[in-house]
Amino acid sequence: MAISSSSCKLPLVAVCQVTSTPDKQQNFKTCAELVREAARLGACLAFLPEAFDFIARDPAETLRLSEPLGGRLLEEYTRLARECGLWLSLGGFHERGQDWEQTQKIYNCHVLLNSKGAVVATYRKTHLCDVEIPGQGPMCESNSTMPGPSLESPVSTPAGKVGLAVCYDMRFPELSLALAQAGAEILTYPSAFGSVTGPAHWEVLLRARAIETQCYVVAAAQCGRHHEKRASYGHSMVVDPWGTVVARCSEGPGLCLAQIDLSYLRQLRQHLPVFQHRRPDLYGNLGHPLS
Ligand SMILES: O=C(O)CNC(=O)[C@H](CS)NC(=O)CCC(=O)C(=O)O
């Protein structure tokens, strides 16, 4: 592979694609192998999909398998990040929050760990996927999950400023706009996308979010069959701020890598200054300040 001298210095990110099952230990093993491979290949930040911890058969099992942020599974990931010396986007952890005792419901929590394994940010999915798509089986995330209360300010990482979201959130451009206006350079949508909406919407939505925010978009996805009742679309990818798909995973579990070029991003934003052309006088400031 030819790498020019200037691109050698660009940070490399890894996008991991897995098929989670209800077996948490096995899922951890699979994810850990991919993260170690990402580190060997020189990535500074690895992205895992929504439900990297497990995909259960029903809401009761989801609740039973869930853990608090201070639980054993996150401890294992802390050690993994430290051992590999890279940052980890854990794209959707089934989290027993502070209010677990009262609500008996969880949060779909995107956790960002630094290379020392410390939790630097959490974002709890704000748009829950309660939909009935013919041919896909009903999804009612709110059976087990509470919506998060707020957006999270973009976080500085070795690859750029990362704005956190989860899966179904990608259908709400207001959120991506808010994160971009708050300084995001990389938007990330860890996902477990359905097999009917996937072929129709997945790539279009991700590329649209990249083009309109002029951010890199990183989407780590679940793929394949999780159990008798559920399968996911896969097609993990990285899109650059021009809308080009610069990396994609193949069909099964695995990873793909992309360089993040922030000087390209800045140049593009200068050439095509859409953020300066917005007309909040006509439609309001849709990207509300985060806090
Ligand atoms: O269930 C879990 O354990 C983890 N959560 C998910 O898989 C969520 C809720 S069911 N999936 C989605 O949001 C798919 C969205 C989608 O497919 C679309 O927007 O078309």
Folded structure, characterized:
The protein has 291 residues and is an alpha/beta fold. It has one domain (12-275): Carbon-nitrogen hydrolase (Nitrilase/N-carbamoyl-D-aminoacid amidohydrolase), CATH 3.60.110. Helix content is 28%, strand content 25%. It contains eight helices and 16 strands. α1 runs parallel beside α3. The chain is globular. Residues 1-5 have low confidence and may be disordered. The site of N-(4-carboxy-4-oxobutanoyl)-L-cysteinylglycine (KGT) has 16 residues, from loops.
Distance between the termini: 44 Å
The average pLDDT is: 95
Report on the biggest sheet: 6 strands, mixed
> What name goes with the CATH superfamily?
Carbon-nitrogen hydrolase
Radius of gyration: 18 Å
**CATH topology term:** Nitrilase/N-carbamoyl-D-aminoacid amidohydrolase
H and E order: EHEHHEHEEEEEEHEHEEEEEEHH
Relative strand content: 25-35%
Strand order of the largest sheet: 5-4-3-2-1-16
- The rough form would be described as globular
Number of helices: 8
Number of domains: 1
Enumerate the distinct ligands.
N-(4-carboxy-4-oxobutanoyl)-L-cysteinylglycine
Instruction: Give the name of the CATH architecture.
Output: 4-Layer Sandwich
